[in-house]
Amino acid sequence: MSTNVIKVHWLNQSRAFRVLWLLDHLKLDYEIVPYKRNEQFRAPEELKKIHPLGRAPILEIDYKSSDRKDILAESGYIFQYILENFDKEGILNNADQQKAEKIKYYLHYAEGSLQPPLFIEFLLSKAKEAPVPFPFSYITKKFADKISEKYSRGEVKNQLDFIETEIEQNDGYLVGGKLSAADILLSFPLEMAFERQFARTEEYPNIAKWLETIKREESYSTSKDKAKANGASF
Ligand SMILES: N[C@@H](CCC(=O)N[C@@H](CS)C(=O)NCC(=O)O)C(=O)O
Description:
Order of helices and strands: EHEHEEHHHHHH
CATH class of the largest domain: Mainly Alpha
Number of domains: 2
Distance between the termini: 31 Å
Helix content: 55-70%
Shape: globular
Strand content: 5-15%
Bound molecules: glutathione
Number of strands: 4
Structural class: alpha+beta
């Protein structure tokens, strides 16, 4: 049993849940340090004491055998670090070198390519709902629709079509027909895509089925319970 202390600086209603799921699946002990979003739905200032950018998740690893302490930010990097240092048996990796590289690719892809157009669509939908008086509301809506039409809606489709085909060609998962770190990391943007109605089950049946499948993992439920005990509501 490891004597290292792993702390997850976790923000409610955020992508930080994936790190809990990852650690639970690898049966690693960890502590959750919970933070609550403020009225502006931003992370509280205290998070900046852990890492200057103040974004969640942040992982803190205290190596008891030495005075080494690592503070890690960026979900993809956190995942890669955990795979390299704490998944020696390759439970969420793949023994095949090419497949392992593909997993690594997805760890960069999630935040680098998939998340940005989804986030732009989300911001535009919020702009359209903003309580702006007429005629500014009309102009705001037209402007948001134009950006969506010229860039983000098409880009979201491009990304989702890609993932749909990848899952179809990889026996229901992202890599090698089995659960890997890539599935856990991509769960958040893809679940949000359905929840925010940027994707529909009829258009993306493989992604919808994949989400159902991976959420049946025991580690999904155990990590959800831990998040709930720390104030999460799903
Ligand atoms: N690319 C970063 C993004 C981190 C990020 O933006 N996290 C959000 C939570 S979903 C956050 O902390 N938001 C709080 C804020 O913006 O104040 C990652 O993958 O970890």
